[in-house]
């Protein structure tokens, strides 16, 4: 309610992300009453514009498909503020005119929000156009990942961005950070001494960040063929999870505090080693519609990472993700060391903290407890925290919904700074220069055989 009027421009408005996440996110914000009292949404992109009516129908369809229990009145109030204007990287004249008219109609102090849901190759030309047309002036720019395609192109993009806007206008979005369960990692670590003190190489033997997906391409062949798994998931989502798990306590829980903590962890991240990385491609990928029949794009990555700092020296981090795998999960596992001096008899078994990054976070700790009975022996017990039980009345925010709201409030806490992006590309660059050989895997499996043996002791997921 205290937000100024907004003109929200969505580039790539007919694309997959807009339909799946952005319009549904705007709808949910509208239904919660969290959008500004006055706003207009302009969709833009290259494709034949059709009329505003056709575009509005596509927004209605997208919301109906991806939101349960749609309130028709709320949806109509959103849709009537939506229009479509075509634009391209070469020509943004009509768009600039439409934005200025929409702003004039909303009064003074209108905030301009430009959401760039375009593929990495289109990003830099579009940003150039925003500069030339003056659209970038005073605007907040939401930039979708991946930010460039490698270290060099990301630096170029960053250079162009900085000639057009300042860093405090740029919101590099990584929707994993918008997830409640990911923010909960900060809460667990820094609000609970129990975890804070046992979160380093003295207590932890290894870490797994495991995000298998059952989904295949979902009609996104054009994007995926130009991107691949490393850029789509590892350099962004999984590395950001790594940042949340591995960083030191931020000086303050604000954008500069959290960025500073992540940047210093990423500065100690050893460049990924192609010899300790497995690339896979699921059988049948090359037959997918729109995929090059001889494509060598990886749909699976598993790798070993090291953070060479005081906290983590000697602790391996295993990252794994891929398409068409056996299960869809987002999970982090911290495997603890065994006690220094074992006084209980019996086989040691994993003592782990498990974070299931589902919509309602589930956290569990595998411990050892005394087995009831006459002997003083221990057996596995599990301590589980299920947020759906603890907060039955609080609705979790969907990631994009949360992040869109943060952009409107100008809060950069949950967005990535250019220094983080630069350090993460630096870590990924050896894999781009010397990609490991692609190994085939069966859809519905856990990836190539070689990846199963990467962590000593195996992966937690997929072990029966
Ligand atoms: C997107 C990737 O950023 O994240 C997709 O482009 C991936 O390939 C998706 O499937 C996973 O996100 P979520 O929130 O559905 O786990």
Describe the structure.
Residues 186-454 form the Glucose-6-phosphate dehydrogenase C-terminal domain. Pathway: Carbohydrate degradation; pentose phosphate pathway; D-ribulose 5-phosphate from D-glucose 6-phosphate (oxidative stage): step 1/3. Catalyzes the oxidation of glucose 6-phosphate to 6-phosphogluconolactone. The protein has 464 residues and is α/β, with parallel strands linked by helices. Helices cover 36% and strands 20% of the residues. The strands form 2 sheets. The protein has a 9-stranded mixed beta sheet with strand order 14-13-12-11-7-10-9-8-15. The protein has a 6-stranded parallel beta sheet with strand order 3-2-1-4-5-6, with helices on both faces. 6-O-phosphono-beta-D-glucopyranose (BG6) is lined by residues 175, 213, 215, 232, 330. 6-O-phosphono-beta-D-glucopyranose binds next to loops.
Terminal CA distance? 50 Å
* Low-pLDDT runs: none
Tell me the total number of β-strands.
15
Shape: globular
Order of helices and strands: EHEHHEHEHEHEHHEHHHEEEEEEEHHHEH
Judged by helices, strands and strand pairing, the structural class is alpha/beta
Helix content: 25-40%
Strand content: 15-25%
Mean pLDDT over the residues? 95
Count of helical regions: 15
Bound ions, cofactors and other small molecules, one mention each: 6-O-phosphono-beta-D-glucopyranose
Query: How would you write the strand order of the largest sheet?
Result: 14-13-12-11-7-10-9-8-15
Largest sheet: 9 strands, mixed
Rg from Cα: 23 Å
